[in-house]
Amino acid sequence: MSTFPAATSAASIEPRFSGDSSRWFAVYTSPNHEKRVTAQFGLRGIESYLPLYRAKRRWKNGCTVTLELPLFPGYVFVHITADQRVRVLAVPSVLWIVGNGREPLPLPDVEIESLRAGLSGRGAQPHPYLTQGHRARICCGPLLGWEGVVLWTKGESRRVRVVLALDSIMKSVAVEVDAEELELLGAAA
User: Fold this and answer.
1) Residue 169 Cα distances to 20, 23, 26, 61, 166, angstroms
2) What percent of the chain is predicted at pLDDT more than 70?
3) Which CATH architecture has domain 13-107?
4) At 64, which helix (H) or strand (E)?
5) pTM of the shown model
6) Where are the domains of the chain?
7) Residue 78 has what pLDDT?
8) If we measure between CA atoms, which residue out of 145, 147, 146, 174 comes closest to residue 162?
9) Which CATH architecture has domain 120-189?
10) Measured between alpha carbons, how far is 99 from 78 in angstroms, rounded to an integer?
11) Which residues neighbour 47 within 8 Å (Cβ) at sequence distance 6 or greater?
12) Is the pLDDT of residue 48 over 80?
């Protein structure tokens, strides 16, 4: 996601601590190892963020369980300085830090901070990465400024599902918002 509202100030996209050159990066992990990698980051004192969602699964024996699964399968976000990259890559099951092939590319701090603040209570679920459909911008709340593709819910509900894309890792997440929180931008090409 690369478009933010014009009202975003330079102070809001600076690192959280003055004099700190820490930035958010996406780390690609071995399949189904996101929670282990996050635990290892915690043991090594590396700040990380693994967004989770709840899903009900029914086992073959008929038991139904609720699982917490990664919202972006295969990815964990880390808040590190340039000299901590080697420590991140030394964690078992970390494959690489997402970048352009030559160097890791940082994610905008406002994206990760708004994800951390805005996903709880929104019914977030993974969704296929989309680029076409009705585009809308969230105009209020903790996800302010995010643009995504609108999927209208069935029935008379005022709740709308919006698919938000994190372009740097080509993953999307679907969240529920009130229709009043959206500003339609028109159809994508």
Assistant:
1) 25, 16, 7, 36, 6
2) 82
3) 2-Layer Sandwich (3.30)
4) strand 64-70
5) 0.72
6) 13-107, 120-189
7) 98
8) 174
9) Roll (2.30)
10) 13
11) 22, 41, 78, 79, 80
12) yes
Instruction: Please tell me which residue, 1 or 34, carries the higher pLDDT value.
Output: 34
Mean pLDDT of 117-122: 82
- At 138-184, the pLDDT tens digits run 998 889 889 898 886 655 567 788 899 888 899 999 898 887 788 88
Query: How many Å apart are CA 103 and CA 118, to the nearest integer?
Result: 29
Phi and psi at residue 59, to the nearest 5°: -80, 170
Beta strands in 115-158 (DSSP E): 125-127, 134-138, 147-152
Residue 71 and residue 173 in contact, taking contact as beta carbons nearer than 8 Å: yes
Q: What is the pLDDT of residues 19-41, one digit of tens each?
A: 358 999 999 999 999 999 999 99
* CA-to-CA separations, 125 to 54, 122, 128, 156, in angstroms, rounded: 8, 9, 10, 21
- Specify the residue for token string 């029914």: 58
Instruction: Return left, alpha or beta for 140; rule: phi > 0 is left, psi -120 to 50 is alpha, else beta.
Output: beta
Helix (H, G, I), strand (E, B) or coil at 129: coil
Burial of 12 (0-12, 13-18, 19+ CB in 10 A): exposed
